[in-house]
Amino acid sequence: MTYRYITTPIYYVNDRPHMGHAYASVHADVMARYLRAAGHEVMLLTGADEHGEKIARAAQQANETPQASAERHARSFEEAWRALAVEPDRFVRTSAPDHARVVSQCLTRLFDAGEIYLADYEGLYSVGQERFVTEKELVDGKLPEDKEPPVVRREPNYFFRMEAHREWMRQLLLDTPELIQPAQYRNEVLRLLEEPIGDLSISRPVERLAWGIPIPWDTRHVTYVWFDALLSYVSPLGYPDRPEFARFWPSVRHVIGKDILRTHTLFWLSMTHALGIAPYRRLHVSGHLLGADGRKMSKSLGNGVDPLAAAGTYGVDALRYTLIREVSFGFDGIISEAVIEQRLNRDLADDLGNLASRTLSMVVKYRGGLVPAPKTYEAAEHALMARARELPAAVLALVDEMKPGRAVEQVMEFVKQLNVYVANSAPWTLARDARAAGRLDTVLYTLLEALYGVSNLLYPVMPGKMKELQTWLGVPNVSDVASGASWDRPWGEGVKPGTVVSEGILFPKLAN
Ligand code: MSP
User: Fold this and answer.
1) Range(s) for CATH 1.10.730.10 in the chain?
2) Whose C-alpha lies nearest to ligand 1, atom 12?
3) Cα Rg of the chain, angstroms
């Protein structure tokens, strides 16, 4: 058995999930589903980052306790993932006792090892990002991602000796070019590591912030939210001694947005190194989603599209498809209602939906709805079969590099190729000539078998619609392992001659 562990960011739960959250979670879910289809034992983790000032403030504004507010929002995240067909195996909550225990153990170990010390600290603090910032990071007096300028703070803090791990991290990045993807983010971190990074403040005085995990040996302080949150990648696996940790951790891939690159490199790599945890295997870094106006989607600009509303209007599968196909992972890109509608109408309705409905309706019309047996394959069929055979490995290779958009593009190219094949072989003409009956059987069978392959290849992106298509094709659903359905069944072992198929419209076109 091969194990694969994939994580989404552990989201702050001070509001409902937005499209940026959906982008990260759908990518992680799609990767999890592809790896599962390829036969790996997969663990997908998401969760709620419930401590820290941001959450405490949101709770205060809503006149709730932080625990009650986090509870309510965590639940709305869980529901949102269900609605978006994101199916995590674990949902970690940083306020859970099991997690707090792991954080306390780690703190104690690091303190005992001399990796943590107490000192006075004065500096500029960004409340938006929940961290101290340096002058160098500021543009016009504030962090570009913040609305408010940072505030000056002086207080006793516990510090983690992050600087002591800098050279080791630099070497790790140099020795493992594939660690952080795409490469531009690795280069960015390498540049940061060329100069001192300082030590990391990892506690807050309790009188300023009570909502957190107490520092085990000094309860006048609580643990800094990032130190706590990053450990939520290991606590759900029963770190340090449960077998799940040993099984899954070596394969871990974190999916994050570029806004949290620094914390996932400087903080997390040094923390794991100090704790003796192997560094993650991959860090997959996304760009930002932009609104129709080309600016970063944000609540204050009001340029975002609500993911649940979009799933309601366009369907969850069309939304997932658009997120994967439209904005290449690692780059910034626009997601607007117009973009989703265009993907739905063109790629899904015109190309894929049309291929499915014309194929199925011809089988119903010309063959009484029964899958025909193929007769003699000609050059056109051999070309399609060859492509169908290559695609699963090509798709998996791209997914492995977190390029699911490119993978899906290849499958959709194949769909286009199949539409051209329909036009060239003109089944409607063959149907008028009794001597061409064998040829018509071969063409219809080829289309059905190729569609079955497409339904498997796109299942991780559009589980709902592809399951529907597989039902119409009369084949067991690929997610139903007990049925013996398999993802890359060889050509000729998918649809079965004699099986009944049914017609349907997969993606009704949305009129504008
Ligand atoms: N709680 C931390 C993460 C801790 S991980 C141990 C946090 N949470 S967050 O709720 O702010 O979510 C951050 C993630 O949401 C980003 O890294 C990114 O993946 C996603 N996005 C938030 N806004 C985004 C866009 N506009 N575009 C794309 N993704 C963005 O940070």
Assistant:
1) 337-483
2) 11
3) 26
Find out whether the beta carbon of 36 lies less than 6 Å from any atom of ligand 1. no
Quick: pLDDT tens for 140-186: 999 988 899 999 988 899 999 999 999 999 999 999 999 999 999 99
Distance 221 CA to ligand 1 centre (A): 26
As given in the structure block, the two tokens for residue 137 are 């990071």
Distance 256 CA to ligand 1 centre (A): 7
List where CATH 3.40.50.620 sits in the chain.
Answer: 3-286
Q: Is the pLDDT of residue 301 over 90?
A: no
Which residue, by CA, sits nearest to atom 6 of ligand 1? 230
Kind of pairing, strands 214-215 and 218-223?
antiparallel
Q: Which CATH superfamily is domain 337-483 in?
A: Isoleucyl-tRNA Synthetase; Domain 1 (1.10.730.10)
170's tokens = 């630099």
| Matching CATH number, 3-286, of 3.40.50.620, 1.20.1260.10, 3.40.630.30, 3.10.20.30 | 3.40.50.620
Quote the pLDDT of residue 482: 65
Query: Across-strand partners of 120?
Result: 156
Protein residue whose Cα sits closest to atom 25 of ligand 1: 20
Which tens digits make up the pLDDT trace of 62-116? 899 999 999 999 999 999 999 999 999 999 999 999 999 999 999 999 999 999 9
Cβ neighbours for 199, distance < 8 A, ≥ 6 positions apart: 159, 160, 161, 162, 163
Of residues 485 and 313, the one with the higher pLDDT is 313
Q: Which residue's CA is the closest to the ligand 1 atom numbered 30? A: 20
Angstrom CA distances, 395 to 129, 222, 223, 381, 387, stand at 37, 46, 42, 21, 12
